[in-house]
Description:
The complex is a heterodimer of chains A (109) and B (116).
Chain A: E1 3-5, E2 9-13, E3 18-25, E4 31-37, E5 44-49, E6 53-57, E7 60-65, E8 70-75, E9 84-93, E10 96-99, E11 103-108
Parallel strand pairs in A: 2-11
Antiparallel strand pairs in A: 1-3, 3-8, 4-5, 4-9, 6-7, 7-8, 9-10, 9-11
Chain B: E1 5-7, E2 10-13, E3 19-24, E4 31-38, E5 42-50, E6 53-56, E7 65-71, E8 74-79, E9 88-95, E10 106-107, E11 111-115
Parallel strand pairs in B: 2-11
Antiparallel strand pairs in B: 1-3, 3-8, 4-5, 4-9, 5-6, 7-8, 9-10, 9-11
Amino acid sequence: GQNIDQPTEMTATEGAIVQINCTYQTSGFNGLFWYQQHAGEAPTFLSYNVLDGLEEKGRFSSFLSRSKGYSYLLLKELQMKDSASYLCAVQAAGNKLTFGGGTRVLVKP
Amino acid sequence: DAGVIQSPRHEVTEMGQEVTLRCKPISGHNSLFWYRQTMMRGLELLIYFNNNVPIDDSGMPEDRFSAKMPNASFSTLKIQPSEPRDSAVYFCASNRDWLTSYNEQFFGPGTRLTVL
Lengths: 109, 116
């Protein structure tokens, strides 16, 4: 089976850094995705990791350790518009994604 | 490209009625996914198609749910009869080249279903 865990909620201050952790146990691994979802909207793609290490994309970075079944999403220089849910998803086999429950990030002024 | 198109955006119906949700994937995409999202269960995959063929329907809750993809540009998800516990946001997503490993899914705006 698939098991993906991430914290339910995090709060941070505008301009700060927040790290969202994701741990997974899956049968098979073809990559890990992070999606952003604003309230009432569809998820949108943020990042993809298939090899160990850090992938940086502007203010957002994502890290993967396959041996530890662990990933994190790092959001730097937080802005109010970053208040959203962040979904970790694992592609275990074929074209199928299994999503974690999502982490709701609240950015305060 | 217009992105993934879903209709209707909102649906309110009464228990026992048939509900049909529609999706048009992005042109050129080979795979189509139907998801359901609720506060309690998060985002769950119901079924997905590759080249119009259903590949994995293990997430379909029960026989009341059915999905079809008659051609590359159209899919439906039908619930008959609907029940209040089916109330959720239903998303359709698509991507291309399912045999490649890097293939982000593009989500439609979703259909918010309320069953009274």
